[in-house]
């Protein structure tokens, strides 16, 4: 069961990257919220299954734990963009914004518009990397340092309501995904 959990975590790392690439680059203009949610479901289901297998197995050895740690960090990075973007698109739907695929860059119109808080995809990947590493290093307080630095860096842009909403949704989704991804490692240790 433990080996199966590590394999599922490795598959989640690869599947998250492939699904993100397909949705973001190959289908971006016409990708609907449903497509984003379906893409996000792939790594979510794999991480959940890995956690369940991890809970049901014997403690993993050092080599297997090291593979799981690397896979968890990669999973946190690759799957997080899908999860965060999916939630941002759902937030647009719940606020009545119609997603017609036309990105005008108007920060007040669309929370999921990539022009709102430009660079968010790269910052989110770095944020998930930092959160995952601090948790695995046994320093969960590092999450506060990461989020504090991000908040200070984005402070001038947060006066716009769409930017503030994007910041909150994206950050929470990103951090929770990173915690869930590395949480699988802790199921393998017990």
Walkthrough of the structure:
- Helices cover 74% and strands 0% of the residues.
- The protein contains six helices and no strands.
- It has helices at 2-26, 33-56, 62-94, 120-136, 142-154, 161-189.
- 41% of the residues are buried.
- Mean pLDDT is 85; it is low at 97-109.
User: How many strands in all?
Assistant: 0
Task: Determine the mean pLDDT.
Answer: 85
What does the radius of gyration come to?
17 Å
The share of residues in extended strands comes to: under 5%
General shape? globular
What structural class results from the helix and strand content? mainly alpha
Order of helices and strands: HHHHHH
Unreliable segments of 5+ consecutive residues: 97-109
Number of domains: 1
Oligomer kind:
single chain
How many helices? The count is 6
What is the helix fraction of residues, given as a range? over 70%
State the major sheet: none
For the termini, the CA-CA separation is 13 Å
Transmembrane segments: 6-23, 35-55, 67-88, 167-188
Keywords: Membrane, Transmembrane, Transmembrane helix
Would you kindly provide a brief summary of this structure?
Keywords: Membrane, Transmembrane, Transmembrane helix. The chain is mainly alpha-helical.
Name the features.
74% helix, 190 residues, mainly alpha, transmembrane helix, transmembrane, globular
Layout of helices and strands:
Blueprint: H1 2-26, H2 33-56, H3 62-94, H4 120-136, H5 142-154, H6 161-189
Helix pairs in contact: 1-2, 1-3, 2-3, 2-6, 3-4, 3-6, 4-5, 4-6
Transmembrane segments: 6-23, 35-55, 67-88, 167-188
Keywords: Membrane, Transmembrane, Transmembrane helix
